[in-house]
Amino acid sequence: MTAVTGEQFDLSLETSSGGIVEATITQVAAGIRRLSVHGIDIVPPYDANVQRPYGSGMVLVPWPNRIRDGKWMLNGQEQQLALTEPKKNNASHGLLRFAPYSVAARTESTLKLEARVFPQSGYPFLLDTAVTYRLVDAGVEVTHSITNLSDASAPVAIGAHPYFTIGDVEPEDLTVTVHVTTRIEIDDRSLPTGEKTPIEQTPFDLRKGVRLGDLDIDAGFSGARIVDGVSEHFVTAPDGRSVTVWGDENFRYWQVFTNEVYPGQSKVVAIEPMTAPADAFNSGQDLRWLKPGETWEASWGVRADGFAPV
C-alpha cells in the first residue's frame, strides 16, 4: 500500500562521535518527515499514512507563503493562480506541495529529489527544480536549485516549512530564539499590509529567547542577522542542548509559527526559511527573475549541538 505522502526515503549517517543521524524524506513535496540525532527527534515525526500536518517539512517553490487572491501581473496581463487557501482566498506555498518527486541520486546519507513545474494557469513557465538532503555530523544540509527552461525570464522564490522540537524535553520548556530585526505587518488574510515594524520592545522580539510555552505566534520577519554569510536561529533545551536552524544569505526572511495541535505533540514551532516575503509576486520584494537557462541555488540546514551519543 502506498503511503499518503508517497515513497519514504530513509537516510542514516554514523557520526564521528559514534552516534547516528537519521532522517526520512517523503516523495510528496520532498519534505522532512523525521530527523533525529543520536536517537532524539529534532523534527517532530508524523505518520506516513496521514496527510502532511500543517505543511510539515514541505518544499515551497516557486514561491513561499501566500499570493493575494492568487493574482499578479506579468507584462501587463493579469495572471490567476489556483486558490489553494480558499478560506483566505489566497494561492499558498507554491506549486509543488502535493507533487511527487523523482529520485535523481541517492546514497545511504544523501538524497537528491527532482520535480518539474509545468506551465499552468497563473504561472506560464517551465522549471526544473531539485532539493538535496545531505546528512552531516549533527544534522542535515539542504540545497535547493531551480533552472528556468522557459524562453522568458521566470519569477521564483524558495522556502521550506520545517517544524522543530527536542524530543526528550517538554515542548513548553524549550526556548525559541530568532535573530531578526523587523516584523512584516499582516492583515486578517495573513498578507503583508506594506508596513514593517521594528521588533525592539515588542512581543515579537525573540532575539533574547522566549519560552515556547509562553509563545503564540504566526509572523513573518525580515532583517535576519547574517554573519559570515549565514543567519542562525535556535530552539534550546533547559540543559543547554540546542537545535540551530540556519540559512545562507539568500534566506533573508523567516516565518515563525507555533502549533498546539500537531499530531503527537503538545506544542511545536516552525521556523521557516524564505528567500522572499509573502505576496512577493505582487510586491516584487526580493523576487528572483531567472533568465532562460539560468540556475539558482540556495541552502539552509539544521544542526544539533550538545547531543551526546547514546
TrEMBL record:
<dbReference type="GO" id="GO:0004034">
    <property type="term" value="F:aldose 1-epimerase activity"/>
</dbReference>
<dbReference type="InterPro" id="IPR014718">
    <property type="entry name" value="GH-type_carb-bd"/>
</dbReference>
<dbReference type="InterPro" id="IPR008183">
    <property type="entry name" value="Aldose_1/G6P_1-epimerase"/>
</dbReference>
<dbReference type="GO" id="GO:0033499">
    <property type="term" value="P:galactose catabolic process via UDP-galactose, Leloir pathway"/>
</dbReference>
<dbReference type="GO" id="GO:0030246">
    <property type="term" value="F:carbohydrate binding"/>
</dbReference>
<protein>
    <recommendedName>
        <fullName>Galactose mutarotase</fullName>
    </recommendedName>
</protein>
<dbReference type="InterPro" id="IPR037480">
    <property type="entry name" value="YihR-like"/>
</dbReference>
<dbReference type="Pfam" id="PF01263">
    <property type="entry name" value="Aldose_epim"/>
</dbReference>
<dbReference type="InterPro" id="IPR011013">
    <property type="entry name" value="Gal_mutarotase_sf_dom"/>
</dbReference>
<dbReference type="GO" id="GO:0006006">
    <property type="term" value="P:glucose metabolic process"/>
</dbReference>
